Amino acid sequence: MKLSAIIIAKNAENLIVDCIDSIGFVDEVIVIDNNSIDRTVDIAKRLKAKVIKEKTDDFAKQRNKGLKEARGDWVFYIDTDERVTPELARNIQAVMEGNTASAYRVTRQNFYFGNHPWPKQEHLERLFKKKDLKEWYGKLHESPRVDGKIADVDGLLLHYTHRDLTSMLEKTIQWSQVEAQLRIDNHHPPMTWWRFFRVILTGFYDSYIDQEGYKAGIVGLIESIYQAFSMFITYARLWELQQKQ
C-alpha cells in the first residue's frame, strides 16, 4: 500500500526541508503552495515533491486539493512546521499494514519559542485511507469527514509553532481579518464593550489554565497573554467590519 504525504505551504523556505526530511518513509510528497514569494516551491521541487499551486485562504479547500491529487492508498497530512519522529514513522507504517481503521489520530507536541514544550498535548486526525476520507470542511479551522472507524497511532508529531514574536504578530495580522469576516458571515451579535473583556479573559484562561500554560513558566505566560491579545485584535476587526455595515 502506498502512502502520500500532503503539505500545505506558504513562504516556508526555512522549514520545508526539515519537514520533508522527516517523512522520508512516504511514497509521494505533495506540496500545496499558497502563493509563496520565497524559495519554497524551488526547494520542494528539488526535494522531488509534486508542487501544486492553490491560491486561497481556505484550508479545507487546500487539503481537499491534496486529497484529489494523491495517488496513494493512504494520505498523511503534515504542516511545514511539523516533524515526524522515527517512532511515529514506524507506527504509521505498522497501522497501515494492520489496516484496522479508516483514520488515525496522532499525538502532537507543541513547542514555543524554539524548544520549550507545551504542557498539554493535542490529538489530531492526520492519517487516512484515501477512499474513506470524504472531504475536509471549514475555511480556517478545518475538520475531516471520515467514513469509518478512527483510532490512535503511537508516537509524537513535533510542532514548532510561534517561534518568535515577529512571526506571531504577523500571523495575527494576517488571520484576524479572516476570522472576523467568518464571524460577520455567521451574523455575530454587535460588539459591545463587555464582549471585549469576555473574549480577552477567555483567551487567556483557555491558554494559561485549561491548556496548563502556567506549567511552562515565562513561555506559558507570554503565550497566554498573546492568545488574549490575538482574540482582542480579531474582535476589534469584527467591530470595525460591523461599523462599516
Descriptive report:
42% of the residues lie in helices and 27% in strands. It is of the alpha/beta class and 245 residues long. It has two domains: 3-161, Spore Coat Polysaccharide Biosynthesis Protein SpsA, Chain A (Alpha-Beta Complex), CATH 3.90.550; 165-244, no CATH class. The strands form two sheets. Strands 1, 2, 3, 4, 5, 6, 7, 8 and 11 form a nine-stranded mixed β-sheet that branches. Strands 9-10 form a two-stranded antiparallel sheet. Helix 5 (165-185) packs parallel to helix 7 (217-244). The protein is globular and about 55 Å long. The N and C termini lie far apart (53 Å). The model has no long low-confidence stretch (mean pLDDT 96).
CATH topology of the largest domain: Spore Coat Polysaccharide Biosynthesis Protein SpsA, Chain A
Q: What general outline do the C-alpha atoms trace?
A: globular
Q: How many strand units?
A: 11
Summarize model confidence as the mean pLDDT. Answer: 96
Helical content (DSSP H or I, runs of 4+): 40-55%
Rounded radius of gyration (Å): 19 Å
Distance between the termini: 53 Å
Number of domains: 2
Gross CATH architecture of the largest domain:
Alpha-Beta Complex
CATH class of the largest domain: Alpha Beta
The DSSP helix count reads 7
Low-confidence stretches at least 5 residues in length (pLDDT < 50)?
none
Biggest β-sheet: count, sense, barrel? 9 strands, mixed
CATH superfamily of the largest domain: Spore Coat Polysaccharide Biosynthesis Protein SpsA, Chain A
Structural class determined from secondary elements: alpha/beta
Question: Percent of residues in beta strands?
Answer: 25-35%
Give me the strand/helix succession.
EHEHEHEEHEEEEEEHHH
